[in-house]
Hints:
This protein is an alpha/beta fold. It has helices spanning 4-16, 49-58, 104-109, 122-135, 142-149, 153-167, 182-193, 200-216, 237-251, 271-274, 276-285, 296-322, 335-339, 351-356, 373-379, 385-403, 418-431, and strands at 21-24, 40-44, 62-70, 73-80, 85-91, 94-96, 99-102, 111-114, 117-120, 226-230, 256-260, 327-331, 365-370, 409-414. It is built from 17 helices and 14 strands.
Amino acid sequence: MNSDRIVFIQELFRFLSTIEYCWLKATHSRPEDTPLHSDIDIFIREKDLPAVLLFVAKHGAVIACKMRKKGEANFLEITFHDCSNLKLDLLTALVRKQYCYLSEAYILANRIWENGVATYTPAVLLEHAMLFNYLNNAGLSVKYLKHFEAMPSTEQVRLVAFINGKYGISFRNIRQMGHFLVSGQNKMEEYLKCQQENTLSARFQRYMRQLQQHFLNKPNQTTPRIITFTGVDGAGKTTLLNDLKTVLSDRLQQRVVVLRHRPSVLPILSAYKHGKQAAEAKSAATLPRQGNNANTFGSLLRFGYYFADYLFGQIYVWLRYTLPGTTVIYDRYYFDFIVDAKRSNISLGEAMPKWLYRFVAKPDLNIFLYAAPEIIRQRKQELPPEDIRRMTGHYRALFLELQGQYSGQYRCIENHDRSETLDTILEHYFSGKTPSTLSPIRRLPLTVHRPPL
């Protein structure tokens, strides 16, 4: 009986056959024959990365996946239900020392198919191994020496001639490539500098990105995100929020915290009167949008108090959560003050809160969930259908406007099927790109506990 690891690898490569990819550094005839201690390196286009990450996150055999991003490489450490493991490296570019040493076009142009799997020619395999090792100040590793020396002598001569002719080096045989030569490294770098993808400007930009990652990102840590969920009551917001939290924390082994509506550095106003615990209990037991405050001055004071919480609380959230690497999910966010301030017993209109949003932290991904009024009223009956339609229209118009003004994603998603909605949210989470750039996603069962709606 095949292990979960082998089954996963086989299904992964069947899935990859729907996109352009290349199995890198392949010294075995089949990916599932890769030794347990070895990584599987796969080159894919950047636009296809979200689809592959979603495949991994949703595969039924995966129980946990630690993800780490470094430059153009995404390192995945996958654990399966039978306790087997796999290290999977997904690369969208081959970069070392600010050099893109094999371009996307070059890799894909030299692909070959063996046993139903896309890899590259032996010449490009040797070239890849040589460039990678020499740019890391090392000679060709024993693994590749054995692999190439096992080939017929005529093939070895052809491969050595290919490397010598392209890079102007004078290796006598494969064995000599195992010794690091500074002169060989210099000639490789001279060749790379002449390539279109390695202009001075391009190399400087890569260098600055690497510096940024070195100082801002902790090792073995995925880049933290700030995500918000917005929706009229009954749209399924809390359910989908909990589903996403389960995937990120249980499957992808990320630290996740859920904040309700705002940073909450300042307590809710009623806490000054009733105490923090009593005020929170009273707030939880009170239906939303039941406030009767129509006083403009009182609304200004109330809004100013909560706006100060966003203004100063965003610093606290960054220091307390984002900087240490915790993903933050807001159950509602500042957008309610623009569209539905009545929830917070505020009556001001939307012009001022919308203008002040420029001073509030911009989350990476903002999700507005909506559904047909009749579906929403089956779940909750606090709002009449006409209010649901009006507020849904306002939220969608607001998100469309903000998408064109600020950084981050502002996505309006119809929640008619819980599983498909979660798929769509995960696509946006993994990508940071517009839906038109995403590859088709194969729907797979996701093993997470989902209480009925």
